[in-house]
Specification:
With about 160 residues, the protein is mostly beta strands. The chain has one helix and twelve strands, in the order ββββββαββββββ.
């Protein structure tokens, strides 16, 4: 299928790269999204709405920046995602970009949990307290020390 993007133009997206969010994402319209990347070496992706050309949020794997980050998902959320074991979950966190790198923040309170095999996700409230909605992203690590890792879900396209 083809997806329209105000940021990247027309993008070809394979059906198996579309992620379903039955309950949506906090503050965003739509329930179908796809991951887009600028390059394979980037630690950031765009979680882009398949149905809304102007809706995309930057996301990252939190452990690239916070090695000791912990997530506890409620039994109810795990059931809704059909997650039988913790290793089956892919965790992403929404990034708030800014003009200066030192002003980038990440939401560690409400991570996005994906069942990669089923291509379904939910934004949940982390049951482990002590994290911030706007945690400074580069508080523990410098960007030059971050190594990129492919997510367990398919990346729909490389956006150039």
């Amino acid at each position: 299928m083809q997806m329209e993007s105000t940021r990247f133009g027309t993008i070809d997206v394979e059906d198996d790269a579309v992620l379903s969010f039955p309950d949506g994402l906090i503050g965003l319209p739509g329930s179908r999204y796809a991951l887009l990347a600028h390059t394979e070496a980037s630690p950031f992706w765009w979680l882009h709405s398949v149905d809304h050309a102007d809706i995309a949020v930057p996301v990252t794997k939190p452990w690239l920046f916070f090695r000791d980050y912990e997530v506890k998902v409620s039994d109810d959320d795990a059931r809704k995602l059909d997650l039988d074991e913790p290793g089956a979950a892919e965790i992403l966190c929404v990034v708030r970009a800014a003009e200066e790198l030192e002003d980038f923040t990440v939401n560690l309170v409400a991570p996005i949990v994906l069942n990669a095999a089923a291509r379904v996700g939910r934004q949940v409230i982390n049951e482990i307290a002590g994290y911030d909605v706007r945690q400074p992203l580069f508080a523990e690590v410098d960007l030059t020390g971050v190594e990129a890792h492919e997510p367990a879900v398919p990346v729909a396209a490389r956006a150039v």
